[in-house]
Design brief:
Elements lengths: L4 H12 L6 H28 L3 E3 L1 H14 L4 H13 L10 H4 L1 H16 L2 H7 L7 H7 L5 H14 L3 H23 L20 E2 L8 H6 L13 E2 H11 L3 E3 L17 H9 L1 H26 L4 H7 L18 H12 L2 H18 L5 H16 L4 H12 L8
Parallel strand pairs: 2-3
Antiparallel strand pairs: 1-4
Helix pairs in contact: 1-9, 2-3, 2-4, 2-10, 3-9, 4-7, 6-10, 9-10, 14-15, 14-17, 14-19, 15-16, 17-18, 18-19
Length: 414
């Protein structure tokens, strides 16, 4: 038995801290503060700083900077630069954290190390980190003493909860490395579902973006990188967007851009510049429609080949069951493996319709990827493509040409 009142007081403090909370209260506190960290990353670092999808009131912006300094030690300029390079070099050897090049195990388990390695590249940070905060506090505290905030957070947790505060602190420090550096950068390019046929391996991990602030909807984000809203389907929920809307209603944020949902109208009689702009704007919706047409045509060709007793039906059947190769056609190696490429070649050799669909798909993609072409040349390219599609006799191509004619004009603000 220790009779020294000072020692007894110290032991009591280490046992309970200043708050003397029950275990469940400490758990709720930990979940709350880690959620604030997630919101700070997705709203401030990601959507505001890296992609300029919204503007935040200076007070809100500074709160996020201060909170991230306390809980992560991440520097805004470095984070934005690494993320921008990820988009610019996605799924290539220059991608800072692609599981397609680094391997899923490394990104999941060592994602934080990959981030730190990229953030230490001063040339990368200078090239991609433009436009981030550069005031006195950023230069002299948040960047120069980025680790100091973590020590402050450690002291706060121990003061509040005593020895158990060390566990609270550990969870706080692991939250972003596990959820963002590991899960989003890893699983978000490895498994899940895809709404949009963008040229990378991004996936939506879950349709309800709550735990990681909406970042679970990673494929949606890669399709529309500059959109402040990450959900796109009626059943998807983006909690980060909910917070942005609340800030907007309070006059504390201004949304600069949100992905436009395509609107269909009566078919255009002429293929004009407005239609070209609509096709480019709604290209991911168009590619999803194209993928549906490919799968439908594939099923029709299976029935035809089976009825004729022709070879190739087994390859086609494999493409519409399980992991469909057709869903990944045109991904520039981002998702389709060499084995799948061989199966695809065999299947296309058995069907002129499918071969024509795939060939014209690649030609259509050139409408928004040929940056060296003038608007007049792109319009002529689209007119020629639609003429061939409408005269092809292939229902999937004719449906695509009709869908393009039905896209409503893009609002001027878009």
């Amino acid at each position: 038995m220790i009779d020294n009142p000072v020692v007894q007081g110290l032991l009591s403090f280490l046992d309970t801290g200043l708050l003397d909370w029950a275990w469940w209260q400490i758990v709720l506190f930990t979940l709350g503060v880690t959620h604030v960290t997630i919101v700070s990353v997705t709203v401030f670092l990601h959507r505001c700083q890296a992609h300029r999808a919204l503007e935040l009131h200076p007070a809100v912006s500074h709160f996020f900077r201060f909170w991230l300094w306390l809980t992560t030690g991440m520097v805004t300029k470095q984070w934005a630069a690494v993320h921008r390079k990820h988009h610019a070099r996605c799924e290539t050897p220059e991608d800072p954290h692609s599981p397609r090049t680094h391997g899923i195990r490394k990104v999941l388990l060592e994602g934080a190390e990959l981030y730190r390695s990229a953030a230490a590249d001063t040339a990368l940070v200078e090239k991609f980190g433009h436009g981030t905060p550069d005031d006195w506090l950023e230069r002299n505290l948040y960047t120069r003493h980025s680790v100091f905030g973590i020590y402050v957070m450690l002291v706060i947790d121990v003061l509040l909860f005593g020895a158990i505060g060390l566990s609270v602190f550990a969870v706080q420090m692991l939250w972003i490395p596990v959820t963002a550096a590991g899960i989003i950068n890893g699983l978000g390019h490895y498994l899940g579902y895809r709404n949009y046929d963008c040229p990378d391996a991004s996936t939506n991990i879950l349709p309800w973006g709550i735990i990681i602030g909406g970042e679970e909807l990673h494929n949606n984000h890669h399709a529309f990188g500059s959109s402040a809203k990450l959900s796109s389907k009626w059943y998807e929920f983006d909690v980060g967007w909910m917070y942005i809307r609340i800030l907007q209603m309070l006059g504390l944020s201004t949304v600069r851009k949100v992905a436009l949902a395509p609107k269909l109208t009566a078919p255009r009689p002429q293929i004009d510049a407005a239609m070209l702009q609509a096709v480019i704007t709604y290209r991911y919706d168009l590619m999803q429609a194209y993928a549906r047409g490919l799968r439908r045509t594939c099923r029709e060709e299976i029935d035809r080949l089976k009825a004729a007793g022709a070879a190739g039906s087994s390859h086609l059947a494999a493409m519409v069951s399980g992991k469909s190769v057709l869903k990944d056609v045109g991904q520039d190696g981002g998702r389709i493996t060499e084995t799948q490429k061989r199966k695809l070649a065999d299947a296309l050799a058995a069907s002129d319709k499918l071969r024509k669909l795939v060939e014209m798909r690649d030609e259509l993609i050139a409408t928004w990827e040929r940056s060296h072409m003038t608007s007049e040349q792109l319009l002529a390219h689209l007119q020629e493509w639609c003429a061939r599609a409408e005269a092809s006799g292939i229902r999937a191509l004719q449906d695509l040409a009709l869908r393009m004619r039905r896209y409503a004009s893009v609002p001027a603000a878009a």
